[in-house]
Structures
1.
Amino acid sequence: MKSNIYSEIDKLKSVIVHRPGEELNNLTPDFMEELLFDELPYLENAIKEHDYFCDIMRKEGIEVLYLEDLAAESIKDEEVRKQFIEEFLNESGNESANEINLLRDFLNNIRDEKELILKTMAGIRLEEIGIADEEGRLLAVNPMPNLYFTRDPFSFVGNCVSINKMWSKTRNRETLYAKYIFTYNPRFKDIEKIYDRTETTSIEGGDILVLNSECVAVGISQRTQKESVDKFARNLLSKSNFKFVLSFKIPNKREFMHLDTVFTMIDKDVFTVHPLIEGPLAVEKLYLEDNELKRESQKGSLESILSSNLNLDDITIIRCGGTNPIDQMREQWNDGSNTLAIAPNTVIVYDRNNVTNSLLKEADVNIRTIKSGELSRGRGGPRCMSMPFEREM
C-alpha cells in the first residue's frame, strides 16, 4: 500500500501516532538536556491527553495507527526479531560487553513483540538486568521520551517516505522502528524511500511540509542541515511528480526548533506564522533541470512568496500570539503555531494558546482543542504528535 500525502490540509484519512509510555517515567532531571526535554511530564495525565487527541481524530473518521503496533507487527519473524535486538543493542550507547550480554538475554526473554518494542522505547534500568546502581548511574539504556512526536523520525511525502537522519544521537535511535516498519511490515514495506537514517547529515520531519501536489517546503533549522535539504530535494524531485522544493532558513534557536513550530498550513491560502521569523526568513526555490539541482532566491514578503509559488491570488496570515510580543513569545513556546489540519480550514490546537485560538476563531477557522498540560512539556504540538499517512485528494 502506498502513502498519499499531497497536501497539509486535505481531509486526513490515516495517521501514525505513539501513545506516551514508560519512557517518560525513566526521564530524570539529570538527563533532561541530553534527552531534549525542559520539564518532567506526568505520564498518567500525558496518556489521558494523548488519548483525547486520538479520540478527536477517530470522531472525525480518521484511522489512528500506533507506531508501537506497527513495529511489533514488523518483527514477528524470529530472524527479523533477533536482527532488531542486535541493532537496538548496537545503537544503545552502552559499551559494556557484560551489560550488552545481560541486555540481550533480557530482551530475548520478552516473547511478546509489542512488549519487546515498548521496553526498547522505555529504556532499561540497571536493576532490570540484575546490576546494582553504580555511582548514581541508573540506566543500562536511556529512554526515548520524544517518541510521541512521531512527525520527526520519518515523513510521508506524496507516495514516498523519508526515513530521517535525526540531529541528535538520542533521537536517531527512534528511526530504527521506521527502518523495520518500512522494510518488513506488509502494509508499508513497498513504499519508495527518498532519504535514509544512515545519511551523514540530519533532516527531521518537523521541517517538512507538503504545501500542494507540486511544492514541498523544507526548513533549514537547528535540526535540519542545508546539505540534507539538497539531498532530500534531489531524491524527491527525481522519484515523484513534485516540481520544486521551497527551502526556508529559520533562526538556529531552540525555540524555533523546526519549521512547523513557526509556520503551518490551515487551508490552501491560510497559514499560521510566528511573527518573529518573518524578518529574518530567507527562501530558495530548488528544482531539477537536466538532472541538476538548481536554486533560485525568492524575494519579497512571505505572503508574496507563497502567492507566487502556490499560484494563489491572496494569502491570509494568522500571526501566533497576535501583535503583542509577550503573547507571541509565550504562545510560540507552547506551540500556538503548530496546528494539525485534519480537513481544509479545520485544525487541532492546544487549549493553552488563548490569543492565537481567538484569532483563529475570528478568521472562521474550525478548531478542535485538546488539553496540553503535560504533552506540551516536550515542546511539540498537535502536528508534531502526528504523522499523516493518507489524505483525500
2.
Amino acid sequence: MSIFLRYYLPVVLWGAGIFLLSGSEFGTKTTYRWLQAVVEHFFPDISVATIVKVNAMARKLAHVSEYFILGLLLWRALRREAAERWRRGWALGALAIGVLWASADETVQLFQPGRVASVMDVGLDTLGLLLAVLVIYGWSRRKGMTLVVPKTRQ
C-alpha cells in the first residue's frame, strides 16, 4: 500500500486535476475573464486583441506545464525505488501513458459544453511529456547512470 501512496497516488491526483480542468467551467471564456481582470489592473490601456492572444498563449503553456509535471510523476512511478537513474522503458512508458491520458482528456472535452477537442492540444501535451523525459535523461547523464556502485568480486 505504501508504494501506491508514494508513487501512484500523486499520478492519480495530478491526472484527476487535469481532468477537472477539462470541464466546461474552465473553458477559454473563463480563463479570458480571469486574465482580463488581472491584466487590465496592471495595464488599463491593453487591447482586447492582446488579451485574447495572451489568453491563448497562457492556455497552451498550461498544456505543456501540466503534462511536463505528469511526465515527471509517471516516470517516478515507473522507476519506483530502482537503483538505476534511467531506463528507456521508463521513459517510453511515461510517454505512452501520458499520450493516452492526453487523448482521453481531449475525448472527454468532446462531451463538455463550451469545450472542443484538439489534436494540437494533444501535441502540446506530448511536448510537455517529452520535455520531462529529456530533463530526466539529462539529469541522469549528468549525475551518472546509476545510484549505486557495482560490487566487485573478491
